[in-house]
Amino acid sequence: MEAVSASPGPWFVVLPDSEASAGIVSQLRSRTTFTLVHASGRPWVIGSGPDARHGTETFVHVEHGGTRVLVAGTHGLAEVDLMVWARRIRRLADVDQLAASLPGSAHVVASVDGQVRVQGTVSGVRRVFYASVDGVTTVAADRADLLAALTGASLDTTRLTARLLAITPSALLEPLWTGTEAVPPDSWLQLGTRGEARITPWWQPPPQKLSCAEGAPRLARALEDAVAARVRTGTTVGSDLSGGLDSTPMSFLASRATESAEGRLITVRIGVADPTHDDHIWAAQAQRLLDGDHVTHTVFQPGELPDMFEQIAQPITGLDEPTRWIRPVARLRETARRLGGSGAVVHLTGHGGDEVLPVKPNYLHDLMRRRPALAREHLAGMRALRRWPMAGVMRALAERRPYGQWLARQADDLGTPFPAGNLPLFGWEYPLRLPPWVKQDAVAELAGRIHARAEGAEAYAPARSAHTTIDLARQLGSAVRLAEAITAREGAVLQAPYLDDRVIEACLAVRPEERSSPWSYKPLMVEAMRGIMPAESLKRATKGEFSDDFFKGQKRHRGQMAELFDKPLLAELGLIDTKTLRHMALAAYPPGLPWSALDATMAAENWLRAQAQTAHWTFDWKDNRVNQPG
Question: Mind listing the pLDDT tens digit for each residue in 454-487?
Fold first, then answer.
């Protein structure tokens, strides 16, 4: 099967102010298109780009005395603006203020008198990886496989097993190569002149103290800035418009921004054949209200775009980790191609709204201890909506383990059945479960790794609901990061403004019981968009359901699954039982086993096959090792 190319494209490596970096520069010289230097004249940042970057991606770099600052990604900073910041920076910690004020989604890299700071974003859409290349010198990069190629690293099969979880928590979305680590999204990496490295936390979630009315203006400003960061003068922008309370606000904000920038907006909606689906009703209403000569509406009719499951057996090269969006990958590519053909450089998606706007039901666990009377009211409403049994609710409320102990318990339960669908999930994260086709030895290895991590594990926030919001945003951030790479090669690059740092902060600042309620749908968004969106479009309280689309695609492309699971490489690595996997995937999928478990396995298998085929960073299966680029 021919591989789908998602070429590594743009990349960068950050080097310490050290003579030892010269060897790394020479290894990558044939692929390097730009070099930035420390005040000493030694190489600081090398990479491919920025001319190769697609969509709204920009590199802005300034120098002032012994200070160098680079902001790379989607942002609205001009060189003159960044120079103002550079003049204020006297030490690496001073970069905190720049990072905390930056709209959009970008890497920030600084060199101050030879000391280096590099960081990504809170959501993990922009990630930073690091490794010791020669046993002494630590370097950073925005791609894990690049570092693996430099160090000749082998595959970490236990980390790969973690990708087979039905839902992999963000803490386990680690680089898949030995000796290669990721900088936590709330931290920055310091590279010293002697090759040493240090991780420093800089970000923490805001206190959840604001009312919905107080927090709504802050969210509106954050979203407006996030969209504006992706709109350039005279450019064409695509935006999802399903009619829901995630994509519709995005389209109205994009309409304002493109009109102001003398650009164009193309809204897109994917039609669904399911007669019970109501997206089209609300989307049509929004289209009528989104007037202007600069706006064009596009509706892809059922069957016009690729099905779910189409091309899942076609290896997607150029990714440094498996994409959990394997099921719709052909649709993502074709949508990017169609929008790009219409002149759009970026595709704004509503993904992320479900993760950051409301809170998950575990907010009731926290609320019961803060405001028990209000918690009982919300519990009554949620029980009526979700039909939770009282006994299950009481057990969930009684469980009060701190995060580390909760995680250790999950390690013990990795190989057990998934919890029943009608039980409340009030834990710190979704339950950690491996599907039945994962071998017991692999289960035990991962359990041991999680137990070791649990001993020093700290929650992302004191409240379970805030921890879960951050975790889900980072899970999705990983998927969006890879989707950007896939779509950038086709046309309009997919981007998710809801995952920008400032947007996440604006949502987290609002009290959880006011972000979610049994009696209202996404109340924070409704309040934030008053006066920006017409009142008619703020009344929706339903969400589109795509099971019909799912099952039709699964039936039509069962052969793709059969091909993907024919002699799987996951089995060669000793991680899965092929017979069990094929039986469950191709016969009657067992009740109670979430489809996300199958997605995870399809993604991992596709990624392994891509590693064997890639022309960019080759994979030696005999030695289980990445080879350096030639």
Answer: 999 999 999 999 999 999 999 999 999 999 999 9
Cis amide leading into 629 (omega within 30): no
Spatial separation of the C-alpha atoms in residues 11 and 212, rounded to whole Å = 40
Q: How far is CA 325 from CA 67, 70, 141, 472, 611, in A?
A: 40, 31, 24, 15, 18
Cα–Cα dist 12/49, whole Å: 8
Label residues 360-375 b or e (16+ Cβ within 10 Å = b).
bbbbbbbbbeeeeeeb
Phi and psi (nearest 5°) for 105? Answer: -145, 105
pLDDT score recorded for residue 620: 56
Structure tokens, 536:
């008619």
- pLDDT tens-digit map of 365-417: 999 999 999 999 999 999 999 999 999 999 999 999 999 999 999 999 999 99
Domain ranges of the chain: 4-201, 212-356+467-543, 363-462, 548-624
Q: Which amino acid belongs to residue 149?
A: A
pTM exceeds 0.85 for this model: yes
Sign of the dihedral defined by the CA atoms of residues 45, 46, 50, 56, in that order: negative
If we measure between CA atoms, which residue out of 592, 301, 279 comes closest to residue 423? 592
User: Helix or strand or coil: residue 400?
Assistant: coil
User: Taking the domain 4-201, which CATH number applies?
Assistant: 3.60.20.10
Q: Which class for 299: exposed (0-12), middle (13-18), buried (19 or more C-beta within 10 A)?
A: middle
Identify the sign of the CA torsion 342, 344, 345, 350: negative
> Residue length, the chain?
630
CA distance 296 to 606: 36
Span between the terminal Cα atoms of the chain, in Å: 24
